[in-house]
């Protein structure tokens, strides 16, 4: 062994090994680069090279907090965990309920809770079993991503509650599932996977962000996020599917898909569909407000005639929520994220911007309060103007929900911190008006899930 280790090696052999090694490194780097750019060149060999190059990142992630479910944040050291009354809040000052959706760090799983805002008490909890939910799924599109289809990671994103106490739920990129009040699945729609918001129109149909499989004759290279508008009936049947990229191209907006000479696999990133429920001076019942994150666009689309009625990019940036306030105003939850080449980050704080169709003006009434309270979520998040003029804001990735008055003072808040000290992510909560919430409480009190 000693003779082998200390044997003399001719210089030309060392040079040959160095040359072969250098060529191997160049080939390896080329395979990784091609794979990063979406090329399928070299097939499994290219995939293996890419996987090997990612090994240091995998090892790095193993040493860091699991960002799929929680964030460690020193921003909230002075804020109590769970529900609390804020700067000017007090018991009985708030009306209504919150359908709170979150990752429960103590249970290490997602939960949905109905919270009475008058006393911050949880009046009902749903604990759907993910394996039981997915057991009713009979077929899936080939592009279904199952990475987060496990109990610790499956969030119930923007759950919708029914008058019988049941829920319609999904995760990002998962089937749509309807449950009863005991969280037992009733049906699943899985011919497409869905993400982001769940909203209901005037006819009782769901409008959802869908990601169907690419068509066989598609021009797009894979992967491509084929964002579509899906209308699904209340009993789980597809009513309508609209390919958003085709809408942009057919109506002369192809440049919005690829504004630079570079292929982008997610050029629109549709994240909210808000149905118009009644006619107004600027829209009609059945129209849809759409939020497109990547181009920072809010648009008004009419499915019945395939028309883009209005489109505006900015001043909102990478927004995630659009709501109709009255017959001439909308609100936009702007994440205000920027990327200067060193990663995406929030610039100062998020904003809720009010756009007035009657005069084209944009106002930001809570801007200074948002900065004072350091409200930020890099991705996701929503805001809802409540009937009494208060504002509910969810910092989804920061694990905090706040209810503020017209002047920006905090009336109540929830911090999703567990006993381990970590702040866990939220999952798009929803405000429930008092009369609706009171009726739900009466129904849920009669539910027996043990019988």
Automatic annotation (TrEMBL):
Keywords from the named record? Membrane, Transmembrane, Transmembrane helix
Q: According to the lineage, what is the superkingdom?
A: Bacteria
Checking InterPro entries in the record gives:
ASST-like
The portions of this protein that span the membrane are: 12-34
Indicate what this protein is called per its UniProt record: Arylsulfotransferase family protein
| Organism field | Albidovulum litorale
């Amino acid at each position: 062994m000693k003779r082998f280790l200390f044997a003399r090696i001719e210089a030309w052999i060392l040079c040959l090994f160095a040359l072969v090694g250098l060529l191997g490194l160049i080939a390896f780097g080329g395979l990784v680069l091609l794979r990063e750019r979406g090329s399928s060149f070299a097939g499994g060999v290219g995939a293996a090279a890419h996987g090997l190059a990612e090994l240091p990142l995998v090892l790095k992630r193993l040493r860091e907090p699991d960002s799929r479910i929680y964030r460690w944040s020193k921003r909230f050291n002075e804020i109590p965990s769970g529900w609390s009354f804020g700067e000017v809040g007090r018991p009985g000052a708030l009306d209504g309920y919150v359908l709170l959706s979150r990752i429960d760090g103590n249970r290490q799983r997602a939960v949905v809770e109905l919270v009475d805002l008058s006393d911050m008490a949880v009046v009902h909890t749903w604990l759907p079993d993910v394996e039981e939910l997915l057991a009713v799924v009979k077929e899936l599109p080939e592009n279904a991503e199952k990475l987060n289809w496990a109990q610790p990671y499956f969030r119930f994103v923007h759950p919708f509650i029914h008058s019988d106490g049941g829920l319609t739920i999904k995760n990002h990129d998962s089937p749509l599932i309807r449950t009863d009040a005991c969280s037992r699945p009733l049906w699943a729609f899985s011919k497409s996977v869905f993400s982001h918001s769940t909203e209901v129109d005037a006819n009782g149909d769901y409008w959802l962000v869908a990601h169907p499989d690419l068509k066989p004759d598609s021009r797009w290279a894979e992967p491509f996020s084929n964002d579509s508008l899906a209308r699904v009936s209340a009993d789980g049947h597809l009513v309508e599917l609209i390919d958003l990229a085709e809408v942009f191209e057919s109506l002369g907006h192809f440049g919005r898909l690829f504004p630079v000479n570079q292929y982008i696999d997610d050029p629109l990133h549709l994240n909210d569909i808000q149905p118009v429920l009644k006619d107004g001076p600027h829209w009609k019942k059945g129209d849809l407000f759409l939020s497109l994150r990547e181009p920072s666009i809010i648009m008004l689309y009419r499915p019945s005639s395939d028309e883009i009625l209005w489109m505006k990019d900015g001043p909102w940036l990478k927004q995630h929520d659009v709501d109709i306030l009255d017959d001439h105003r909308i609100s936009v939850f702007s994440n205000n994220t920027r990327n200067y080449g060193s990663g995406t980050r929030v610039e100062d704080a998020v904003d809720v911007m009010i756009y007035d169709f009657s005069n084209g003006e944009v106002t930001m009434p809570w801007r200074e309060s948002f900065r004072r309270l350091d409200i930020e979520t890099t991705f996701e998040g929503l805001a809802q103007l409540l009937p009494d003029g208060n504002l509910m804001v969810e910092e989804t990735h920061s694990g905090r929900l706040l209810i503020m008055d017209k002047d920006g003072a905090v009336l109540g808040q929830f911090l999703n911190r567990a006993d381990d000290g970590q702040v866990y992510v939220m999952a798009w909560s929803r405000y429930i008006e008092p009369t609706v919430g009171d009726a739900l409480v009466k129904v849920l009190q009669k539910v027996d899930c043990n019988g």
